[in-house]
Amino acid sequence: MLIFAKKYKNKKPITLQSLLQPMLNNLKSFAYNADDEDPLKKFRNYFYFPQLNGKPVLYFTGNSLGLQPVQTNNFVKKELEKWAEYGVEGHFKTDKPWFDYHKHAKNGLTHLTGALPTEVTAMNALSVNLHLLLVSFYQPKGKKTKIMMESGAFPSDQYAIETQIKWHGLDVDKNIIELTPRQGEKILRTEDILDKIQENKGELALVMLSGVNYYTGQYFDIPTITQKAQSVGAYCGWDLAHAIGNVPLELHKWNVDFAVWCSYKYLNSGPGGVGGAFVHEKYHQADVMRLAGWWGYEEKTRFQMKKGFLPEKNVDSWQLSNASILPLAAHLASLQIFIEANIYKLREKSEKLTGFLEQVIEAVKAEVNVDIDIITPQNPRERGCQLSLIVKNKGKQMFEALQNQNIIADWREPNVIRLAPVPLYNSFVDIMKFGEILKQVAINLN
Ligand SMILES: *Cc1c(COP(=O)(O)O)cnc(C)c1O
Question: What is the DSSP string of 181-240?
Fold first, then answer.
């Protein structure tokens, strides 16, 4: 489709307009067509788009804070009204009582994670859930005391793991095995991860990775790595912050031990939204160590308020406190959209959108002198919808110039621009417009 760009590569540009022309013409018709034929196009109208300087933005940061669904307001309002009307009785005597309100999230969460209803719950926030599940799944014993993780993992995950190791009275430096890409490479190779697990088999207690790396956008081979970790007697846990709602997951089938996520990124459930957790059913009957609170107590006898913790026989037993209803209401509003759209269909569109973004960037590179490297894997199966660009020269200036043109992307030190075209609400035309602006910005900076 964009092979035309190569033709112009070596021609001397005459005017700015003539330079923009070849790319614009071809991309425009493709993009408008693709949007026209997009079976998911109506979902864009389910969201509010922010404005900047009185104009709508091109929003590419659904990987940081997803947009607000129009129906969220109604979902939250309904709970506020119940509270006003019923007070404490809202816990039992209303439509969707608060007592087990969190269970309504299971429908959407099972769809997104491929879990059984008993294996997923919405609770707390991501880092809290990570700690709670590390309490259960990081149980260093004898020689098996080490945790394997990505070097440069999201800071919260680093701090959680470091402090868990300290909490067990162990030396942090000696008990974290970091996975680092090969010299000159930016992403990890699955084979290297598997080898490293094998090498450390006697000492490995836990492999804890992100499903999709927040910085590079690399989507790891969850089933293969999980299986390998378990084959050497280690647990395998996943931080799905950048994976849930982005790529379809089959956590039950993949035999993942545990997973955690947040809901304000691709799940559009609002700033600081309620997090989630998965614990495989094989641990539900077992006497697994966990920190307990009353909301994890067996549901039918909870209000007998007895001494001695009796866990509910599913992931809900990891709950501590009674659920935060207002953030959960926002979560339900968004989950309903995912059920309606279907994560597999979203993924299909997502691969096309991200592929288009990649082509647009390559076309711009072919036409103007701009030093952009895409560090995200090229293989669609090894990435979600995010592309991370390294801009070697004037990267920050380029990012700021894009911002001034109403493009919302994000900047990660020292030189990475992350862009996430989200299939629920981004369009091919959004990406085409981004390409036009990127090209102008690059010309201006040259
Ligand atoms: C976004 C993100 C977090 C954020 O943690 P919170 O507890 O929700 O603030 C943690 N880990 C990863 C990998 C993330 O992408």
Answer: PPTT-SS--HHHHHHHHHHTTTTEEEEEEESB-TTT-BBP-HHHHHHHHHHTT-EEEEE-
Please give the C-alpha separations between residue 287 and each of 121, 128, 314, 326, in angstroms, as whole numbers: 19, 21, 12, 33
**Bridge pairing between strands 387-391 and 120-122:** unpaired
Residue ranges making up the domain that contains 218: 73-341
Q: What is the pLDDT of residues 52-75, one digit of tens each?
A: 888 989 999 999 999 999 999 999
Q: What is the CA(241)–ligand 1 centre distance, in A?
A: 6
Domain edge (last residue) among 312, 341, 370: 341
Residues 315 and 371 in one domain: no
Distance CA 86, CA 94 (A): 8
CATH number for the domain spanning 380: value is 3.90.1150.10
- Average pLDDT value for residue range 248-269: 98
Say yes or no: CB of residue 203 within 6 Å of ligand 1.
Answer: no
Task: For residue 103, give the CATH number of its domain.
Answer: 3.40.640.10
In a domain, 192, yes or no: yes
Residue among 28, 122, 70 at smallest CA distance from 425:
70
262 Cα: distance to centroid of ligand 1 (angstroms): 7
Distance 245 CA to ligand 1 centre (A): 15
- CB of 126 closer than 6 angstroms to any ligand 1 atom: yes
Of all protein residues, the one whose alpha carbon is nearest to atom 1 of ligand 1 is 241
Same domain, 161 and 301: yes
Q: Is the CB of 131 under 6 A from ligand 1?
A: no
Atom of ligand 1 nearest to the CA of 264: 8
For ligand 1, whether the C-beta of 410 sits within 6 Å is: no
Atom of ligand 1 nearest to the CA of 154: 13
Please name the amino acid found at residue 407.
Answer: I
The per-residue pLDDT for range 115-174, each reduced to its tens digit, is: 999 999 999 999 999 999 999 999 999 999 999 999 999 999 999 999 999 999 999 999
Q: Give the atom of ligand 1 at the shortest distance from the alpha carbon of 214.
A: 15
What sign has the CA pseudo-torsion 40, 46, 49, 54? positive
Question: Which of 341, 368, 395 represents a domain boundary (last residue)?
Answer: 341
Q: Dig out the tokens for 394 from the structure.
A: 């004037």
